[in-house]
Design brief:
Chain lengths: ~1000, ~475
């Protein structure tokens, strides 16, 4: 106890602004209709922000000032109750289920609202749904939880980038990422590294610090963020302190990460057999025997040893996480401070992620009119990665393709350093050695800070000012050891990249809220927002180190290159938002924002983004009074325009730029054309939604249909080449995304001890390219007017001619041909992007035991399996491993199969190559995944009380536990692009056990 | 009061922030066009930029010199090749072939950048006028060079039809222009005017990597040669030979002269070359790399070219016998630094060429004595055992052209000789069977205007046959 008090005092000193107050103490208990205690119910002194929450038994203790008149008790889905204090010292309250609607609070732009008052499409996730998951960033955790929000890992690299798209692919050439706002700070998102394989800028935030995530999906809701809002807005609110007893929470979990699955590959004798056949077919018996006897050095393929390369490059990685958070405060000051350490050792050898975070969130009331708040988050994370893509040193490719007769380890268990000449085949790097001696790392240091002050000018009028900053410093080091094949030719190579981002922002808002005559609820918000972002960087590269142990840049003897980077942009905007709610039945809202961005041409720098929203709470009409089972029925309609400013910083500027040096002297040339009329892409979006709450709100949810016309899309318009420029960027394209989103939350059983809830989200989205340049009907084959974005246009594989083993294809009229021509291609019935996705969670709780089962699913798309393109060659390349299904190759006339005859080089005369790209390598992307399985036990209070512990929770969580998919590669969850699944670091399966204790 | 104060503060912040220019951000590594080239230093940097772009592998860095030999009878592509320039080897060029597109795009980009230098308004100053005029002269020469090659590759030979359709002439930067093609006579008039002005502006000599006034004069000689204006060709060439101060390399120094990858300041042989140094070069896209058997090694010398050389001809050293794809072949080692860090510079003009222009001009002007004098100046220098040509009449012309073929082999001259002389090209048995004899009416001797240009500017019009 003593220790805790000292600790508490220390923290209080740090948060300097804390002051103490005294006066009356009131105690009591909050229960529901059945007398069951309600934990975490809010108890507030009316007219102040002073308040406490109830403990696990529903008990509370609150100290109130002399002039406090009444207490307000509230809890999610319960009707708020107000009790006059008078002379009472004990107040017992029973909260009734809310007859009105879900009292959930959602965060919309610059404001918080009750869910029932929202007329747009806003999706939310609360802390309890994402806490204690072994993920490095919160965006990963919301996958499958919010309808309309599609989250895909770009890879499984610990701390690697995540692709988030809200309501489909919104642009052809500009960015598609939403705007992220954390505690009012607009964040730089995406991958900020320049050399590291994949990094997520949002990984600096500990997901367990987050209280809620709200996603503004429809343009009308997002339009208050104007030119940055076209891809939706994700608003993150971190946990803050509450008045009352200080709460200390320690949370830890440990676990491991493993590969999702192992691909079925050939043994060395099998691979050698296919290669032998390849030589036999193309070269004859002498060549085949020469290959076997001399190249492989055996007389019988069965003499060859097999090494399991997948076992060599994958490992059982470890996970370790510690978090300590302390929160509390009094009626004037509340605080939350937390620290965390996360270490994730990847399931691919020599990859990891280490993060330390510190957070301080502080709220203080200076007086009855002025309050201030600050949030600080300091984080440092280091990633160690491995070569990616098609690099021979990439373990994720090597694990599949290295000739299985090459030994990764020496007989004594040490790593085999004799790769290169000592290995057979094109994949002659030993990734075990390479990842041991080479280094690819990135260190991110991030600081996010915000300060805000709110001044209550009148009870209904307040002014808020805030100043925010997001600062990032990244150092990336790469070292190619001279002992590695990639480093040997230059005797070692050292590459350094340094990158800094400084993002400064300010918001000034004036807010007016008033309820007239109990029926007319009016609120008006006017504001100004400014943001500037500076990005600087340096890079250097040198080669030639004296000995391999000296891996620093200053040890290199040959300076190869140095470089620098400087770019900046600014955006400023003014906005006005007005909402009117009549009698809790009719909701009308309008927003207008005027934004200017330095990125756009001087003629079109400023733009206006209007939006309107309407909602009708049908359930609150007189005629619905008799329909007792309907608690909530709200029809919502919204329409708005938002902008997409995610383009190059200087795209609109005509400039002289560096154009190559000449004899060591700088050369300049006209680098870019002036585009005075360049402007943002626009999202014109209509949303129609229905919210419902049935049977005492036990079943509630919403259905939304949307249609977004993405207009003024940037495309390169060809210029007469005689101008000296091939093209100029213009706002001409049009794209439409439409779809339906369903989310349902249901309390299936709500017994005294047993509770079963189900949450479902489903999204279907369809895109269509409407317009490109005048007279242009396609850009490449993936973008064609009338087709969805990222369409797939390819040849139709017809299998293998049973007569001679040659692969053949269908031509445009359905005939079988060996060598199809361009016009024989056809569009697959799906694109690279999933068209439906979502998730469903079942949560069971019995007394202190909780079981959560979360399935996530996605599909309707095709995946380009590029790894298969290399591993499905019937062994024809004769120097690498193959999928086991290649044993199905055609061997003799009459064989009916889809795998062509093995033929050295791959091209059987009179046919296309055995691995010619066709629909054979586009696999269906549908999958269903048991994303999360958590079993938790909350220790009974009776047991803990004696130990001075408020609560303790023990849990076991599995992530990516099971995947149901026909995909042949490691993981069907991937961001496809045109390169497809090409040596991607696959995701892993994590299992961890943890303990969360609250004092 | 408080209320008013806050409202005022709020408004002032909002309005103050929206001042004009508030959102103007300019890139750091680039300067806006309006402020570019206001000083001589900036002019110099812009000239460097054009030199660097001339080096591009799509134009003088590789494509133009390769096509100049490959489409004639000096070079053929091995059956074992990297796939580069096979379209030209096969004479199967179409509107979507990459190389003519690259030449068209690259040269018009050179013209755009040269225009900005030529038109730059630099105030007169006794301290900087010399440098300014020099830079302007260099830019004028580069622009003339670009128009000359555009005319040679994309239009009929001037000697065939001086009034044939040429190429668009752009003297100003204008992104909205949709120009049409001018007649060849107009294009050549522009080239000559630029070169005259360049000659009078330039006074400085830096190194062989930079244009000098005699480079402009030498190019003039070459242009007149292509126009068949022999007296002017003679005058220009003679001016260079007599007054430029450049000397011919000796036989003993010839091989080491070609082995040297760096620019010269001794005024021996090289009048102008594009520098490819260790830091800035075309890597594996260098001209040297495609000849180098340790590089792509695609380009092989024809037997007919090799056979022209006597055993004592120093130039025979550049033919390296080897085996490729099972055939006995001659690799070319005129460019020896394909695999070195410092690649061979691209020779744009050598004194030998000017001397041979002079010989040819004297021949055309019926002065055979002087024709033989200048012809033998080259021939006896390259083969110390050779006593010199004594031929006359058409045999003398034949000898001059053969000497040109040997001296300028692999430098991209041969095809243009066939063009200006309007001769059938006999590429020999090493060329693909379907492309061994290229008659003068073969439309592929003139490159197509790129399809992308036709799409963007219908005024252009395609060349016949495409």
């Amino acid at each position: 106890m003593q220790k805790r008090r000292v600790l508490l005092l220390t923290w209080l000193c740090i948060s300097a602004l804390v002051t103490f107050a005294q006066n009356r103490t009131i105690t009591g208990r909050v229960t529901d209709d059945n007398g069951v205690a309600i934990a975490n119910a809010s108890v507030m002194v009316k007219g102040t922000s002073q308040g406490v929450v109830t403990d696990a038994d529903g008990n509370y203790t609150i100290t109130v000032g002399a002039n406090a008149r009444s207490l307000v008790f509230s809890f999610i889905s319960k009707a708020t109750q107000e009790v006059v204090i008078g002379e009472k010292l004990v107040i017992l309250v029973s909260l009734k289920s809310d007859e009105k609607t879900m009292e959930e609070v959602v965060v919309v732009g610059f404001d918080k609202r009750n869910r029932r008052d929202v007329a747009g499409a806003v999706g939310s996730v609360k802390a309890r749904e994402i806490e204690n998951l072994p993920v490095q960033s919160f965006d990963r955790a919301i996958q499958g939880k919010i309808a309309g929000v599609q989250v895909n890992s770009m890879n499984g690299i610990p701390g690697g980038a995540i692709d988030v798209k809200i309501r489909g692919v919104g642009s052809i050439s500009a960015g598609t990422a939403p705007l992220y706002i954390v505690d009012g700070i607009q964040m730089n998102s995406g991958d900020q590294t320049r050399n590291f394989p994949s990094s997520n800028a949002l990984a600096g935030i500990n997901p367990d610090d987050i209280a809620s995530i709200d996603v503004l999906k429809d343009p009308a809701s997002a339009s208050i963020y104007g030119a940055q809002a076209a891809n939706g807005v994700v608003i993150i609110t971190t946990k803050r302190g509450r008045a009352g007893r200080s709460k200390i929470t320690y949370n830890t979990y440990f676990g491991f990460s493993e590969k999702l699955k192992k691909l079925d590959l050939l043994t060395t004798p099998e691979a050698a057999q296919l290669a032998y056949e390849a030589y036999l077919a193309n070269g004859g018996l002498a060549a085949a025997n020469n290959f076997l006897n001399n190249t492989l050095g055996v007389t019988d393929v069965n003499q060859l040893p097999t090494y399991d390369w997948q076992e060599a490059v994958f490992q059982r990685g470890s996970i370790q996480n510690h978090e300590l958070s302390i929160s509390g405060g009094n009626d004037k000051t509340t605080f939350l401070t937390s620290g965390s350490y996360n270490h994730f050792n990847g399931h691919v050898i020599n990859t990891d992620f280490k993060r330390t975070t510190f957070r301080v969130n502080l709220d203080h009331k200076v007086n009855s009119r002025l309050s201030v708040a600050t949030s600080f988050n300091l984080s440092n994370f280091r990633q160690r990665g491995v070569s990616g893509g098609g690099a021979f040193a990439n373990p994720n490719r090597g694990g599949i393709l290295i000739w299985p007769g090459n030994a990764p380890f020496n007989p004594d268990g040490s790593t085999n350093y004799n790769d290169g000449a000592g290995y057979f085949g094109a994949y002659n790097h030993n990734p075990v050695k390479v990842t041991e001696i080479n280094l690819t790392s990135a260190i991110n240091k991030k600081l996010q800070g915000s300060f805000s002050a709110t001044y209550q000018i009148l009870p209904e009028l307040s002014f808020r000012t805030s100043f925010n900053m997001d600062y990032t410093d990244i150092k990336e080091d790469q070292y190619f050891d001279p002992r590695s094949i990639d480093g040997s030719s230059v005797n070692g190579r050292v590459i350094f990249f340094g990158t800094e981002f400084t993002d400064l922002q300010t918001d000034q808002t004036l807010s007016y809220k008033k309820l007239f005559a109990e029926k007319h609820n009016v609120s008006v918000l006017a504001g100004f927002q400014y943001r500037q972002n500076k990005n600087t960087g340096q890079n250097a590269q040198g080669t030639g180190v004296p000995i391999y142990l000296l891996s620093s840049l200053n040890a290199t003897s040959v300076p190869v290159s140095v470089g620098s980077l400087y770019q900046d942009w600014k955006i400023a905007g003014m906005f006005l938002k007005a909402d009117y709610i009549f009698d809790d039945r009719y909701i009308v809202g309008a927003t207008i924002r005027r934004d200017g961005s330095s990125r756009f041409g001087k003629d079109n720098r400023w733009g206006v983004f209007p939006a309107a929203q309407l909602a009708w709470r049908i359930s609150h009409e007189k005629f619905m009074e008799k329909t007792r089972f309907v608690d909530e029925l709200k029809l919502r309609v919204s329409y708005g325009i938002t902008g997409n400013a995610l383009i190059g910083n200087y795209t609109s500027k005509s400039t002289f730029g560096l154009s190559g040096d000449y004899l060591g002297e700088t050369g300049l040339a006209l680098a870019r054309l002036n585009i005075d009329n360049l402007t943002w892409e626009e999202n014109h979006g209509l949303n129609i939604g229905l919210d419902f709450g049935l049977f005492g709100n036990r079943v509630n949810g919403s259905v939304d249909v949307f249609s977004s016309d993405r207009k003024k899309l940037l495309l390169a318009k060809p210029l007469p080449i005689t101008s000296g420029f091939p093209s100029v960027t213009q706002n001409v394209g049009v794209l439409n995304n439409k779809g339906i989103e369903v989310s349902v939350n249901s309390v299936n059983v709500a017994g005294k001890n047993f509770r079963w809830t189900t949450d479902i989200s489903f999204t279907k989205v369809k895109s269509e390219v409407k317009k490109l340049l005048d007279g242009q009907d396609a850009i490449g084959t993936a973008i064609r007017v009338g087709k969805p974005m990222n369409s797939i246009f390819t040849y139709k594989y017809a299998g293998v001619n049973p007569a001679d083993g040659r692969p053949f294809y269908y031509d445009s009229v359905g005939n079988l041909v060996y060598i199809p021509v361009a016009r024989d291609r056809y569009y697959l019935d799906g694109t690279l992007d999933p068209t439906w996705f979502g998730g469903f969670t079942n949560t069971f709780s019995y007394k202190g035991i909780e079981l959560r089962i979360f399935f996530q699913y996605s599909g309707g798309n095709y995946l380009l399996n590029q790894d298969a393109l290399f591993a499905s060659r019937s062994g024809s390349t004769a120097d690498r491993n193959q999928y086991r299904n290649q044993l199905r190759r055609w061997q003799k006339p009459g064989d009916i199969t889809d795998v062509p005859k093995s033929y050295r080089g791959g091209t059987i005369p009179g046919a296309n190559s055995n691995f010619f790209l066709s629909d054979r390598f586009y696999e269906k992307g549908d999958y269903l995944r048991l994303k999360e399985l958590t079993l938790a036990y909350n220790f009974p209070k009776s047991l803990l009380g004696r130990l001075g512990i408020q609560g303790a929770r023990f849990y076991v969580t599995g992530v990516n536990v099971l995947t149901f998919s026909d995909y042949l590669g490691y993981d069907p969850e991937l961001v496809n692009g045109t390169t497809g699944d090409f040596g991607i670091y696959p995701q892993g399966r994590q299992t961890n056990a943890g303990l969360q204790i609250t004092f | 009061m408080n209320k008013i104060f806050f409202v005022l503060f709020f408004l002032s912040v909002s309005i103050g922030a929206c001042k004009k220019g508030f959102l103007d951000r300019e890139p750091y590594t680039a300067v806006p066009v309006a402020t570019a080239i206001k000083t001589v230093e900036e002019m110099g940097a812009a000239v460097n930029g054009v030199y660097a772009s001339l080096r591009g592998a799509g134009i003088y860095g590789r494509t133009i010199p390769i096509m100049g030999d490959l489409m004639a009878d000096n070079v053929y592509i091995s059956t074992q090749n990297s796939g580069r320039y096979t379209v030209q080897n096969n004479y199967s060029t179409t509107v979507v072939t990459a190389e003519p597109d690259g030449i068209w795009t690259g040269l018009y980009s050179v013209i755009k950048n040269a225009n900005l230098i030529i038109n730059a308004d630099i105030p007169a100053s006794p301290l900087t006028d010399v440098a300014r005029d020099q830079f302007r002269g260099e830019a004028l020469t580069m622009r003339a060079w670009a128009y000359f090659d555009l005319a040679r590759w994309f239009a009929k030979p001037f000697t065939v039809d001086a009034n044939a359709i040429g190429v668009p002439i752009l003297l100003d930067f204008d992104q909205n222009a949709k120009p049409s093609r001018e007649s060849l006579a107009d294009v050549y008039a522009r080239i000559l005017a630029d070169l005259n002005q360049a000659f009078s502006l330039m006074t400085q000599t830096k190194s062989s990597a930079y244009i000098t006034k005699y480079v402009a004069r030498g190019l003039q000689a070459r242009v007149y040669q292509h126009m068949g204006d022999w007296s002017k060709a003679r005058d220009a060439a003679l001016d260079v030979v007599t007054n430029s101060g450049f000397t011919l390399v000796t036989a003993s120094g010839y091989v080491s002269y070609w082995r040297n990858p760096a620019p010269l300041t001794n005024k021996v042989e090289t009048m102008f070359e594009l520098s490819l140094d260790a830091a800035n070069n075309n890597g594996t896209n260098a001209l040297a790399y495609i000849y180098d058997p340790a590089g792509y090694g695609d380009m092989l010398a024809t037997t007919s070219l090799f056979n022209l050389h006597t055993a004592t001809d120093v130039r025979r050293n550049f033919f390296v016998p080897g085996t490729r794809a099972g055939q006995s072949v001659f690799y070319v080692s005129k460019y020896a630094n394909g695999n070195s860090v410092d690649k061979d510079d691209v020779k744009m003009m050598r004194l030998s060429e000017i001397v041979l222009i002079l010989a040819e001009a004297y021949y055309r002007l019926a002065d055979e004595t002087n024709a033989r004098l200048y012809l033998n100046m080259i021939a006896t220098r390259r083969d110390p055992s050779f006593t010199g040509y004594t031929s006359t009449g058409t045999q003398l012309l034949e000898d001059i052209l053969n000497e040109r073929r040997k001296e300028l082999a692999f430098e991209g001259f041969r095809f243009q000789d066939f063009q200006r002389l309007n001769l059938v090209i006999d590429r020999g048995a090493q060329a693909p069977a379907a492309a061994r004899t290229i008659t003068t009416d073969n439309h592929r001797r003139i490159q197509p205007i790129p399809q992308s240009e036709l799409d963007a500017n219908p005024e252009i019009g395609q060349n016949a046959g495409y």
